């Protein structure tokens, strides 16, 4: 078998791509690589060059999605065990896993204590503003420890948290004012990107690592939803059981269980995504494929309703807020669908659905911008209008270029890499806008 450097490089790239299909374990990849090398050897023996033999052999291996499904069926018992069991292949790995779990639990307790202290010492409005500062530093610390960041790198991560703490606590917000709410909403978004900087180990310039953070965020949302659902059911059953004994435990739930449970769930969900991504990484893409067509139907129905109304000038303010939330949901679906897609596969029906989703969202965004500009022209600028307008402009730029690239990909005029690169390069814009809304909008409107 020809084992020159070029062939080994190609096999290495193929192996890395196969391992990206998390259903296939390292042992499975080794077995597949053995078959691949046998094929290359046989083909080289009949006169093919190493490069030609590699291409033919890979073609004979078949579609990786089909291979993944075959392994999933054959090893379903192993897949279920991976959900709950620590790796047991080697003693060092087991020790490392236990140590990591200990670190996560310690950080989760720390986050719970911080939230509990905030509940005791901070007024209600101040607690709402600072809640992200009480939890996200612990998640960021976990990622920094996990990625073995240097002390200098970890210190840099502390700067945005310090700036946010100063902004949220030194700005003279008017009680129950709009700018206070805006700052409280955008602070966790901006700080989530700081946690993302730790997640990628400080290598934010890497487009691949940025997309890894998108995948993590999608899976983290899934885990948080599952933990919230399970925790809610458990708390409900507990309260009901004690109530039947004429014992009131609601104060225990409110004062102790909820602060530690919510803060701990954020840390534990992050650890679960990291520890169990070999299997669970396949959940969010399935949800994306389910909700994409449903979201398209919702957007088309809304566009039809707007057309029937014949005017967007008098659109209700609450509806504008809901539409912005829907557009953010569309962005999440788009990002995660891109992050979970096989970059080498040709365009298929789902890619066309994604294009329809983007175009529909773009049409809704244009209507929302028209309505907002009309309200601003009639009633003037307010903090909420400026913030919503800025968000819609940020989304508009992304959707316009996403539609252009998506159309080019479906028509075969550009590769999927261009679609993915646009999204990863645009990610910092969202974090930058959230930081700008938190820092610049309140003083621009006298903290009203």
TrEMBL record:
Q: What is the lineage of its organism?
A: Bacteria, Bacillati, Actinomycetota, Actinomycetes, Mycobacteriales
Which protein is depicted?
DUF4153 domain-containing protein
Keyword check for Transmembrane, yes or no: yes
Q: Which superkingdom, per the lineage?
A: Bacteria
Kindly state which keywords UniProt assigns to this record, in alphabetical order.
Membrane, Transmembrane, Transmembrane helix
The record lists the membrane-crossing segments as 101-119, 125-145, 154-174, 180-200, 220-244, 256-273, 294-313, 319-341, 353-374, 386-407, 427-445
């Amino acid at each position: 078998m020809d084992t020159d450097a070029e062939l080994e490089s190609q096999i290495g790239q193929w192996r890395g791509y196969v391992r990206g299909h998390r259903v296939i374990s390292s042992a499975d990849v080794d077995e597949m690589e053995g078959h691949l090398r046998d094929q290359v050897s046989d083909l080289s023996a009949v006169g093919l060059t190493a490069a030609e033999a590699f291409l033919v052999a890979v073609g004979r291996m078949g579609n990786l999605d089909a291979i993944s499904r075959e392994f999933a069926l054959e090893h379903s018992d192993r897949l279920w065990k991976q959900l709950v069991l620590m790796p047991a292949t080697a003693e060092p790995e087991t020790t490392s896993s236990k140590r990591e779990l200990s670190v996560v639990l310690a950080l989760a307790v720390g986050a719970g204590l911080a939230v509990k202290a905030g509940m005791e010492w901070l007024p209600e409005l101040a607690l709402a503003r600072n809640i992200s500062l009480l939890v996200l530093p612990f998640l960021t610390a976990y990622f920094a420890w996990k990625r073995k960041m240097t002390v200098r790198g970890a210190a840099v991560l502390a700067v945005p948290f310090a700036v946010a703490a100063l902004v949220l606590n030194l700005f003279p917000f008017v009680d129950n004012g709009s700018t206070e709410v805006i700052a409280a909403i955008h602070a966790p978004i901006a700080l989530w990107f700081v946690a993302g900087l730790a997640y990628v180990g400080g290598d934010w310039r890497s487009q691949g690592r940025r997309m890894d953070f998108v995948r993590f965020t999608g899976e983290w949302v899934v885990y948080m939803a599952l933990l919230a659902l399970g925790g809610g059911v458990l708390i409900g059953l507990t309260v009901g059981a004690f109530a039947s004994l004429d014992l009131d435990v609601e104060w225990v739930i409110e004062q102790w269980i909820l602060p530690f449970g919510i803060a701990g769930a954020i840390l534990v969900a992050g650890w679960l995504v990291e520890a169990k991504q070999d299997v669970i990484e396949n959940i969010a893409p399935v949800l994306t494929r389910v909700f994409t067509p449903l979201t398209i139907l919702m957007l088309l129905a809304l566009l039809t309703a707007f057309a029937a109304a014949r005017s967007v000038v008098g659109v209700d303010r609450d509806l504008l807020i809901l539409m912005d939330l829907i557009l953010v949901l569309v962005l999440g679906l788009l990002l995660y669908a891109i992050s979970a897609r096989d970059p080498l596969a040709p365009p298929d029906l789902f890619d066309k659905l994604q294009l329809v989703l983007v175009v529909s969202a773009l049409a809704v965004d244009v209507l929302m911008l028209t309505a907002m500009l009309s309200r601003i022209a009639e009633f003037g600028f307010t903090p909420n209008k400026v913030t919503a307008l800025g968000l819609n402009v940020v989304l508009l730029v992304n959707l316009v270029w996403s539609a252009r690239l998506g159309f080019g990909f479906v028509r075969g005029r550009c590769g999927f890499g261009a679609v993915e690169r646009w999204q990863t390069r645009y990610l910092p814009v969202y974090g930058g806008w959230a930081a700008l809304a938190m820092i610049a909008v309140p003083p621009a409107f006298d903290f009203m």
